[in-house]
Design goal:
Blueprint lengths: L13 E4 L9 H8 L5 H9 L3 E3 L2 E2 L11 E4 L18 E4 L3 E6 L16 H8 L24 E7 L2 H12 L4 E9 L6 E5 L2 E3 L7 E3 L4 E2 L2 E9 L3 E8 L6 H8 L24 E9 L6 E5 L4 H10 L1
Parallel strand pairs: 7-15
Antiparallel strand pairs: 1-4, 2-3, 2-4, 5-6, 6-7, 8-14, 8-15, 9-13, 10-11, 10-12, 13-14, 15-16
């Protein structure tokens, strides 16, 4: 069984021994499995830059190794990027010298990524904080402690200092940081409240999607409570015990009740008028890294959310 690699040392060779299960598979498919947390384009770039080899020779993405072969690759240190502060309005719900909590609108990308280097939350934060952000997550994600999807609205924690970042990250890891969401889902759940305890990993059929799986997955737990029921939908409160990629969206789809408007995990004939999933991060609770005080921040439901509920009532 091939083990995944979650953290890479730049310019240090990574060696993968091919077992019988992977004999005859394309090299790019092999590395995609090894680098499950990295994008398809990241893997393809390794081949285009001739950074993948076997038996001392550079190989192409279509190369098919044999059982026992050692496929080796290296990742060069990324080029430094210059991110520009942008005067984008921010809805700040809490702020002090250590951190801030921002209410992100739906449609805003959290941090720059290939093809998306402006108009992000990070560009706005660089302007608002005058560059005073934690550097732990590097130049692309300064201050970003955790993320929510582009088309999910709601609260995000941002660290201004490295010490605050370490403290807040530890609370997330220990599951002591409170995170509540609101969502509208298709259909009606069998129980008014419950827990989804199902591991989440990369989909073997589509690397852009996550799924409930036992293979190369991470523990994931979501608590839900039904707040209201309508003819074809339900309004839920959800609490995250863990924070996996697309966790709520995947868990709801796993139950057979995907989030309304979800273009990835929802039905093909889903709600297109929403322009994205009806999902809002409405509450954050955490221990302040400096004062030790418990801080609770809530963000009201945005207009797109309340408008949709009015339509389906």
């Amino acid at each position: 069984m091939i083990e995944t690699v979650t953290e890479i040392e730049y310019n240090e060779p990574v060696r993968v021994t091919v077992d019988g299960e992977w004999e005859g598979e394309r090299a790019d498919k092999l590395l995609s499995a090894v680098l499950a947390d990295y994008s398809r384009s990241f893997v393809q770039n390794l081949f285009s830059q001739e950074l993948v080899s076997c038996k001392g020779k550079t190989v192409s993405k279509s190369f098919k190794p044999r059982n026992g072969d050692i496929v080796e690759f290296t990742v060069p240190e990324p080029r430094m990027l210059s991110l520009e502060p942008e005067a984008i309005p921010l809805d700040i719900m809490y702020e002090d010298s250590e951190l801030l909590v921002v209410n992100k609108p739906r449609g805003m990308v959290v941090h720059p990524a290939p093809g998306n280097y402006s108009g992000t939350l990070v560009n706005a934060l660089l302007n608002h904080c005058q560059g005073n952000l934690s550097g732990i997550n590097g130049i692309i994600r300064p201050g970003i402690v955790h993320r929510i999807d582009k088309d999910t609205s709601g609260l995000l924690l941002v660290a201004k200092t490295d010490s605050a970042h370490v403290s807040l990250s530890a609370q997330i890891k220990e599951h002591s940081l409170a995170r509540e969401y609101r969502a509208v889902i298709h259909g009606h759940l069998k129980q008014q409240e419950g827990v989804v305890d199902a591991p989440i990993g990369r989909s073997p059929n589509d690397r852009k999607k996550m799924c409930v799986t036992e293979n190369n997955s991470k523990h994931a737990v979501t608590h839900y409570t039904v707040l209201e029921e309508y003819r074809d939908f339900s309004f839920l409160k959800l609490r995250l015990e863990t924070g996996r990629t697309h966790q709520i969206r995947v868990h709801m789809a796993y139950l057979g009740h995907p989030v309304a408007g979800d273009p990835v995990y929802g039905p093909k004939n889903g709600v297109t008028s929403l322009g994205g999933q009806c999902l809002h991060a409405g509450l954050l609770g955490f221990v302040h890294p400096k004062s030790g005080e418990f801080i609770r921040v809530e963000a009201p439901l945005p207009d797109y959310f309340t408008d949709f509920i009015r339509r389906i009532k």
